[in-house]
């Protein structure tokens, strides 16, 4: 693990595994009135949605063989160690991201289709899309965690860069939408992300002290409320009772947090954006692994870049800018170079899978109890094709989702929104439709209980 | 001030034009703090809450005559069998209208706005029409005069806007409250309605976190860096000089930022410049108007913060002293004039045409990010520090011994905290308040410095329910349903949250704690003083902005393909124009009907160009007289803000929405929501609508029975305004130069023939008394923080009548509300 290697011994984490690590007073906390711990028989399910721009190099992504025991392709090769938990899908289209006669252009402005399956409304200031599956899952599984979800990225979400053709930048800035009109901001600063997960303060001690102060303030507030009630009318007294109940709920959260404070990672994460994208990627994967480990959140999204990104990744073995290299002109040497960049991102994913696999969770590992969906809104992005987009799924969800599969659909038959629908079903969320879905994707859809 | 058991509501009802009902304490035992000057007998003076005044007796019309009018003109539809709009007037006795205000207030409202009987249905002569209306009002008011019900407001928590204002006034600290607190729900058009301001764990958590952050920002310091990113709106242009930035600059951003400690801060400015090879471009970073750094660069280049594909950021790290400062990032204007064909930044960018030399554009700033402090130091001075630390322990002699120092610190801390508590709790601090805060001071002092002690106590104060919630005491031994006067201190809070959206200042608390505020003359003086105070800007930025839908402008964005001239600068211009216009009504204490008619507006160069007004240069707004050639711009109906927030589709105007807006906000009679499953325009027209003009399409739509009732009211209003395009520009044709001529001639709901915006404005003036009522009703809603109910209408009418005698001046309405029973009294509510 990137963070631990630098700062603290690994066993520090393991001690905290599987318990709520911290309970800071975060603004975005969900109201958690009725905690409902999932029993060991029904393990916690987690979701990670990973988006990247600019598709994948044609000819280097799809394994040649269909079904079990396929040979990993050049790009997907780094996932070989996790074969039993990996599903690759070839042949899905993303029609919601396509240009139409009425809405031409905008190919680089509709990234948020990935987890919504919905067509973005073409409007610069009042965007409308759909609820993304990470949020639907967060609603079901994040009720008694500190953060119902977290949104991470590595590239600045400049509000109006590249959002062309009259599309709001919201569709390129965030792939996580809590309502059809509410994109959630993507956090790119690892330190800020860390504080969202673990609380304000420069150290674990400072965070603990802050919580103790909050606890004594809330204690005093409780006494104050009792006195205040005396002079009020019946209706207002009832309202203050609600106030009191809410204070008690806060106190409950703080107590849990203080109880666990000692187990918090005392790490020194640099402030600001790392110079190296390589470091940045791995820090963010570390944070997600830590968040799962501490059960701080169960739903995450991660944007590996932005549409039209010009970032280059020297560690990939090729140093071109992302968008420029994706326009490889179908020239063999350019395509081969682009494939190296694609593989690099799968290598980072493998790093994350490794962290998860090494962490025990219930009767298995974190990797057994997660679903990672990595995808893009383009296939061959040189042609801006939104067909045959690369789809990687890793993880056992509840331990029963079978890996070691390369699923192939005939051209023009299936769409990614159907995959989203099937994923929701896999998470026990009964929903008939998402975005423009036409029916749950076979082979992913859970078998009906007979 | 507490109300004794014997306090009674005393109603005087004198028939005639000076009829008045006022409350006063009778039976001798007024509350101890009540000044001797309190009116012992009812008088129409300000301060004696005027409950009801009867209208001049309308033309001595008999109940029988009114009944006959109802039978002839209303009962055809509103009878027991049809019950149109769920209303039957067949059996009710107009003479006893006061027994059924829930029915008759609806009737009165429709008659006031002139929207009933519906178009095409015969109406009585105007005199009889108005006679019926006045008769009904008088009947309701007569009944209400016998039983005053001032209503009750539930406890009122600070909303987001108020929280920010309170922190500003309490700590001299400007905060970006949107990063601290969730947004509030609106009801009845406003977000300060007590019943809608609910409390949840998430909200309390946000308040608790905010308390820690605000206290630290104000008097402590941040030891670890924080990050703030300010984004430019998606459709900014940045072609012109922005108000507030130095002259000779172009575009950019200007933000207020709190620097939480003395230290180094890193500024990152995202610079969008694709397509620009502008020679000698310079970007200036200014803090509080002083140049802090100058970036020089030459067109596109990675070393200058840009790359061929991405837009980089220009970074600089410089030391800044703690405090709230204006940070600007802007381009030093060069003589170079690139093409301005495409104004919007994102349009410029999407062309991706940097290889075409003649298409060169100004670069723009995408965001401004401030990170820090690095190597922080505790600030020794800032506006907040000066405001809070009213004394210093080290300043006096006798601090030689540790013990003496501790005593001195304690004395100083107590004085600081008592001052803060008085302001924050909006009343003199009690011994218990001091004790509670000192406990936390001592805890903080033990762990750190004197300042740390104050910080922790301040944090405690800001988390206090007495700070976050406005409560009003209820006398325990008063019977249920009995009305009573609120205390002077409670009145002070109501007043300051109404006029300032913030806490009372020291002067107001002093007057109130002396029990003098309920004195009518003192109250009037205080209202005048508060209206003259800059804090009354809240009446524009908070009340006015919600009244006139200015907050909706943020989400207004006509499609760039059809409206290429729309950009954020225009949006801000619309907002500013209407704010200044509303402000002028308040500052010059004008007749509120001027909102509909005034022959002036406020323009800057950007807006003047859009309106086609010549010879206006520069970014600042100035008053411009609207001559006969610009008659159509007079009043609210000619303002871009109204015209723009009433678009519905991105690519055309919405006559329906404009009609609804006028019905709701000028006539005070909002139409009901459309019934479910209304067919869309296209379906109702039966197939292709391409060949029909919008007006023809709407005619088809109007034939559809479920829709016709309301559309007959709304559509003509909207079509009279169709010379205004969706972006507020004047037009004579729909669809450009070769398009269909606009036909803005309509017959209004009351049968008046009207042509164009000016004609509509003139026609609506017949209903200007109703407009005054509407403004008063909304202001009363906002002032009380609760919905205005049927039971309030008699009081409302009396306020409006009094204001009419003072030419509907803004202050006369404010004063009328302040002295009314609902504003000064409460009813002891039943257990619920």
Summarize the structure.
The complex is a heterodimer of chains A (450) and B (832). Chain A is α/β, with parallel strands linked by helices.
Describe this structure in words.
- The complex is a heterodimer of chains A (450) and B (832).
- With 450 residues, chain A is α/β, with parallel strands linked by helices.
- Chain A is built from twelve helices and twelve strands.
- In chain A, strands 1, 2, 3, 6, 9, 10, 11 and 12 form an eight-stranded mixed β-sheet that branches.
- In chain A, 56% of the residues are buried.
- Mean pLDDT of chain B is 82; it is low at 1-48, 50-60, 300-310, 339-343, 348-360 and 682-690.
- Chain B has a four-stranded antiparallel β-sheet, with no helix packed on it.
- The interface between A and B is large, with 69 and 78 residues.
Question: Helices, strands, pairings?
Answer:
The complex is a heterodimer of chains A (450) and B (832).
Chain A: H1 2-7, H2 10-16, E1 46-51, E2 86-93, H3 113-116, H4 133-141, E3 150-153, H5 170-173, E4 177-179, E5 182-183, H6 190-198, H7 204-229, H8 234-260, H9 277-293, E6 299-303, H10 322-326, H11 332-357, E7 360-361, E8 364-365, E9 370-375, E10 389-394, E11 405-408, E12 414-415, H12 416-426
Parallel strand pairs in A: 1-6, 1-9, 2-11, 2-12, 3-6
Antiparallel strand pairs in A: 2-10, 4-5, 7-8, 9-10
Helix pairs in contact in A: 6-9, 7-8, 9-11
Chain B: H1 63-73, H2 101-113, H3 126-145, E1 156-157, H4 160-171, H5 201-219, E2 226-231, E3 249-259, E4 262-272, E5 281-287, E6 290-297, E7 313-320, E8 323-332, H6 345-351, E9 364-377, H7 383-388, H8 402-425, H9 431-447, H10 450-462, H11 465-468, E10 469-470, E11 483-485, H12 488-499, H13 506-513, H14 520-532, H15 538-547, H16 568-587, H17 594-597, E12 600-603, H18 605-611, E13 622-625, H19 640-645, H20 655-665, H21 681-685, H22 694-703, H23 705-720, E14 733-734, E15 740-741, E16 745-747, E17 753-755, H24 756-764, H25 768-784, H26 793-805, H27 810-818, H28 821-824, E18 825-827
Antiparallel strand pairs in B: 1-10, 2-9, 3-8, 4-7, 4-9, 5-6, 5-8, 11-18, 12-13, 14-15, 16-17
Helix pairs in contact in B: 2-3, 5-10, 8-9, 8-10, 9-10, 12-13, 14-27, 15-16, 20-23, 22-23, 25-26, 25-27, 26-27
